[in-house]
Specification:
Layout lengths: L2 H21 L11 H18 L5 H27 L8 H31 L3
């Protein structure tokens, strides 16, 4: 068993499941989505991105690209949430819908990453 692959796989799958946990629910109900889960999702996606940097294969390049897309979209969602939840500006359903849409895009990137990771694992020889 390759410990590096286990750790990388753990964080890749954790990033996807945390993102799903944030995204799941009514997109217009702020009470169903936690800012702490969004923060954890960003942190785990950043860790997964760093772990993918060591892979020098073509699949590794695509994996890091999907990871960077997810991180960029999650950071954009967190930025919008931060700006529109300040004291002077109230967040409304339209802005929160954008946050959830960005999270859904990041989730799609995470799913793509997991599919590629599993595919690469299946095709590798022992």
């Amino acid at each position: 068993m390759n410990l590096d692959k286990v750790v990388a796989g753990f964080f890749i799958i954790l990033a996807m499941t945390l993102n799903f946990g944030f995204w799941y629910g009514d997109p217009l109900d702020m009470n169903m989505h936690s800012k702490y889960v969004l923060f954890a999702t960003i942190v785990v996606n950043l860790i997964a991105s760093v772990l993918k940097l060591g892979d020098k294969t073509q699949i590794g390049s695509v994996l890091i690209a999907t990871s960077l897309v997810a991180v960029l979209q999650l950071l954009a969602a967190a930025t919008i949430w931060t700006i529109f939840s300040s004291d002077t500006v109230l967040i409304d359903a339209a802005h929160f819908g954008v946050i959830i849409s960005l999270s859904a895009g990041a989730l799609l990137a995470n799913v793509t990453s997991v599919i590629l990771y599993v595919g690469d694992t299946l095709k590798s020889k022992r």
